Amino acid sequence: EAIFHGYGHKSVGDMAQLFVCIENIPMFTAMKIFYLNSVISGQERSTRYQNFEEPEYIRIPREICNDKKIRKEYEKIILKQMHDYSVLLKKTKEIFKEYFNINEDIKEEKSALQARSFDCARYLLPYGLQTSMAAVMSARNWSELISYLNAGDGIVDREVGKLIYNLLGDSDVNIDGYIREADGLVRHTEANYSRKNSTKEILEYLRKKVSAQRQYINKGSESDSCTVSYNDNAVEDLFTHYELLINPLGSESELEFDDEDSEYIGEVLFKNHNQHNLIGNLGQSGSIKIEGMSALCTLKDLNRHRSFERFIPLLHDEIDMDNELNRDSKDCFFLCNYLDIPEMSELKKEYEKALIGTYNMIKRWRNDSLKVMSEEYSQEFTKYLLPHAHSTRYCFYASIDDLQYTINLRSARGGHIAYRTLVYRWLELLNSNDSMWYSLLKKIEMPDPASRDQFIDRS
């Protein structure tokens, strides 16, 4: 700031790397922060190493909902999920120990049993649980994050935006013993409504054209639902993204847009967006497209690969939440792949029963909350009720190098069986499109949930 003059604020702001720890935010918000920023290094606290005996979770402030019954029911749903987690974690560990013949006197086997059991039971945890994260970004990126959080619909988004600004920016809030490193470079943090305004206008236009008939086909698993294709039309991807905010589970017939539609959307976009106001994830595309349905906890892990261009409708304020939940409760979630082992069938039924009960409660709460809360706040706190098992849509875009890196890394032993299985399926589909991928396919081990060797190996 003192040395470089006349270079422009953003050029200098890119050089100031700031490390921030953020505590006691919903897991959903942590995932959203990583999702919004492609240039970010950081980690969120793992669910494996948290004590959930006395869970801390985001509560509904009285000032946005004075209805005690609605607030109590919200907390009841979260506590029900935590009870399910506690009960089934214990059962899962016992059954895994027996099936995989684990000797807990051997340190490596005991550690693997503990980690795999947590990985399976975490599907029951709600996304409103509090977590902590740490991240490194430039002053420019922190400024942009603050401005978009300040424009968010959610009370938590706006509060986090304010807190980060008070920590980093030229704030009136004084913190004893703390010297701000680059407060002069954390600028232009006022609420940026460009994405919200353009999205609202475009969705109003498209709702007249998008099929009102929603279509959801339950394809059974994350691997069964995904498709991989070589991509050649970024404008079509853009229309798909907007359509998925309206019908996140898919439309009966996809929108067939014409030049008039493209011209209209172009007018809206370039009226609201420029070098200072980016379109964000909605405008992302790439050479290879991967799309499907996946559990939120699988997406949380894959969301770390920020070289991917990523679009996840659920992480946008503008998603139609009722359409997201408009399916049988049994179709709202995926379970950990270990539960597909035939000998786990009874345990799997217990997980299914617990989650179906949770979704029935969530849907009732959503309907009841809309009678006493605004749509924006009802949607925000409905998202916090969703379990890690929640099945939702994703569209990823990547280069050949991005994919070979992620597939090599995430298919390897040691990782979570869910993302290992999913990225291996990506590789199989890539190979079916082009034989170039065969040499990678033949050298990578197929993930096997029933394999004792893979279960124990955490290297």
What does it look like?
The chain is an alpha+beta fold and 459 residues long. It is 47% helix and 10% strand. The chain has 18 helices and 7 strands. The chain has helices spanning 9-13, 27-36, 68-99, 107-121, 139-150, 155-168, 194-206, 222-225, 234-246, 259-272, 296-302, 321-324, 345-369, 375-385, 400-410, 417-433, 438-443, 452-456; strands at residues 17-26, 41-44, 130-138, 227-230, 288-295, 309-311, 391-398. Strands 4-5-7-6 form a 4-stranded antiparallel sheet. Strands 1-3-2 form a 3-stranded antiparallel sheet. The longest helix is centred in the N-terminal third of the chain and has 32 residues, at 68-99. The chain is globular, with a radius of gyration of 23 Å. The model has no long low-confidence stretch (mean pLDDT 94).
Average pLDDT, all residues: 94
The DSSP helix count reads 18
CA gyration radius, whole angstroms: 23 Å
Percent of sequence in beta strands:
5-15%
* General form: globular
Give the proportion of residues in helices.
Answer: 40-55%
Distance between the amino and carboxyl termini: 44 Å
N-to-C order of helices and strands: HEHEHHEHHHHEHHEHEHHHEHHHH
Strand order of the largest sheet: 4-5-7-6
User: Uncertain segments of ≥5 residues (pLDDT<50)?
Assistant: none
Largest sheet: 4 strands, antiparallel
Which structural class should the secondary elements be placed in?
Answer: alpha+beta
Number of strands: 7
